[in-house]
Amino acid sequence: xxxxxxxxxxxxxxxxxxxxxxxxxxxxxxxxxxxxxxxxxxxxxxxxxxxxxxxxxxxxxxxxxxxxxxxxxxxxxxxxxxxxxxxxxxxxxxxxxxxxxxxxxxxxxxxxxxxxxxxxxxxxxxxxxxxxxxxxxxxxxxxxxxxxxxxxxxxxxxxxxxxxxxxxxxxxxxxxxxxxxxxxxxxxxxxxxxxxxxxxxxxxxxxxxxxxxxxxxxxxxxxxxxxxxxxxxxxxxxxxxxxxxxxxxxxxxxxxxxxxxxxxxxxxxxxxxxxxxxxxxxxxxxxxxxxxxxxxxxxxxxxxxxxxxxxxxxxxxxxxxxxxxxxxxxxxxxxxxxxxxxxxxxxxxxxxxxxxxxxxxx
Length: 362
Ligand SMILES: [Zn+2]
Prior knowledge:
Blueprint: E1 4-13, H1 24-41, E2 47-50, H2 52-60, H3 64-79, E3 83-84, E4 86-87, E5 96-98, E6 101-103, H4 123-138, E7 149-151, H5 161-171, E8 175-176, E9 184-186, E10 191-193, E11 203-205, E12 219-221, E13 226-227, H6 231-244, H7 261-276, E14 282-283, H8 293-306, E15 312-319, H9 326-342, E16 345-347, H10 350-358
Parallel strand pairs: 1-2, 1-15, 1-16, 2-3, 4-7, 7-8, 8-12
Antiparallel strand pairs: 5-6, 9-10, 11-12, 13-14
Helix pairs in contact: 1-3, 2-3, 4-5
The site of zinc ion has 6 residues, from loops.
């Protein structure tokens, strides 16, 4: 057993990327308030990754209520002791608001689809804009705040990972929590392959190393933890997933025009098929429909066991307030309580981890 576990609980703070069935208050702001209340009750610091592109898009169309609520909730989150770092869904920038509805643009959804040059719409310019935006928003709340960490849309640092890592470093990003150990994913929107990443639970990535090997210096990576489950657990998972599938506040994004229902159903089926085929890697998350507390805890233990050679094991958990209902909130509570009982565990923010890594103990 490792001497110590450091766990980064993270939340991608965003609306549903395709269609939202409910107003933002019910998709995002109220579930986030519940998450913050729970974390306050349990004295558990976390890191939020707000999709800042959505704020810029709403402001552009005069939808200031969303933007104001978003900004004030991120300030409250930082004040409550959590960290707030950068997440970007660039498709917002070309999306249009017409007849009280978002027409989602799907041709520029990921960093690799943006230009890598000096133009104002390049990937680097967007990351720099995001960093300045969060610094300006949050420094008045906390003087030593700085935006330095990143979570990629769809966890996709690929394709072109070497260029993306270079661009992130050159733009001022120092830490990343996007690599998802051993996950492969191929949808109509995103394709990632993290099957050959370093064995450790924390490492550095350079433009030369990409995601596949460790570098002496560069971007600090704390990958999203994953696990596999036996056939029995997978069957239970699929059953629970099937009966809860209707519990949703919106749909995921599809490349098909205007997010029509058929396109979304197809995306949904493709997303679910990956759980049926073979022996998939599950993401450590409280909001994956079909998990229960036992499956999640078993997965967590397995991840720790896979890294038992390390004195300190780092574990990133990925959640989304938009996907959290009462059941998922309870699972998060159980997870925090149970891991504290079983392990010498510290829940830390990105800022905590980065600071400790860059100041070697005496
Ligand atoms: Zn996201």
